[in-house]
UniProtKB/TrEMBL annotation:
Domain ABC transporter: 6-231
PROSITE patterns: ABC_TRANSPORTER_1, ABC_TRANSPORTER_2
Regions crossing the membrane: none
Name under which the protein is recorded: ABC superfamily ATP binding cassette transporter, ABC protein
Species whose genome carries this gene: Loigolactobacillus bifermentans DSM 20003
Length: 303
């Protein structure tokens, strides 16, 4: 049986009358990268700050390593590394001094691994932190986190401010953690980042988890885009319930198909003399928009 490293059950958080978290339930298993996605303001950072014991929950339960995130925060923090989306550093210390301080606070030391990461992320560690751009401040925190021997790594929008080359380095390092059997909770709104690295994802909207599962599971619920050229008109396909957005010009047709009905549509296409066919699987962005649009329609219908 898979061991859960993070367990959240019906977590709630109120700020006065505003309910930031209404119902968050998810688990992060040992050795997996869990992607936590949703637009800004959906509740990602509030959930993470509650997990870190920075905020006290208003309801529900949250544990890390089987320990309560509020009462056992000190013990939990000895086994995790965290990078927020906006890192504030001591302005008069150099980048190198801050990295060493972060490591010391976590009971760790500067190692050859730290030097390797400094080189990879191309950080000038001799400069004072007050001179750093947002991207360089993120690099300081990422180098310290990846240098730390932890059991759980929590990243909250960690690549904000990084250029695409540095994003690539970040992704490589997360995949290396995964290969080493570490657990990662990654909050992001960069869908390609999540798509590349994550085993499972949770979608949060307005303080509620609206879907969790593997990308493969969710793709079954989305649609494959088809572009096809046939010798005979494919117009009859438009009447099939699994076909959406059908458009035809001469012998060229484009449409989307519910993935679970792909075989049925291919069977209907076969007698039409297929000359060329291209199928594009749904991206995480497609899934994300579909879930969000469905929920928008559902909530609007209730008003």
């Amino acid at each position: 049986m898979t061991e859960a490293v993070v367990t959240i059950n019906h977590l709630q958080k109120k700020f006065g009358k505003f309910q930031a978290l209404k119902d968050v339930t998810l688990t992060v298993n040992a050795g997996e990268v869990f992607g936590f996605i949703g637009p800004n303001g959906a509740g990602k950072s509030t959930t993470i700050r509650t997990l870190l014991g920075i905020l006290k929950k208003s309801g529900g339960e949250a544990t890390i390593f089987g320990q309560d995130v509020w009462t056992d925060a000190v013990a939990i923090h000895k086994r995790l590394a965290y990078v927020p989306g906006d890192v504030y550093l001591w302005p008069n210390l150099s980048g190198g001094e801050v990295i060493d301080l972060f490591l010391k606070l976590n009971g760790q030391k500067h190692s050859p691994r730290t030097d390797e990461l400094i080189t990879k992320f191309k950080l000038d560690v001799t400069k004072k932190c007050r001179t750093y751009s947002k991207g360089n401040r993120q690099k300081v925190a990422l180098i310290a986190a990846f240098s730390t021997a932890a059991d759980l790594y929590i990243f909250d929008e960690p690549t904000s401010g990084l250029d695409p080359l540095m994003e690539e380095i970040f992704q490589q390092e997360v995949l290396a953690l995964k290969d080493a059997g570490k657990s990662v909770l990654l909050s992001s709104h960069i869908l390609s980042e999540v798509e590349r690295m994550c085993d499972r994802i949770g979608i949060i909207r307005d303080g509620q988890i609206i879907e969790t599962g593997s990308l493969a599971d969710m793709r079954q619920l989305s649609r494959t885009q088809i572009t096809v050229t046939t010798t005979q008109s494919a117009g009859a396909l438009a009447a099939l319930p699994a076909v959406h957005g059908f458009k035809q010009t001469d012998q060229h047709a484009t449409f989307a198909v519910d993935s679970e009905a792909l075989g049925e549509v291919m069977t209907a296409l076969a007698p039409l003399g297929v000359k060329a066919l291209q199928s594009t699987p749904p991206t995480l962005e497609d899934l994300f928009l579909r879930y969000y649009n469905q929920k928008e329609v559902g909530s609007n219908a209730q008003h």
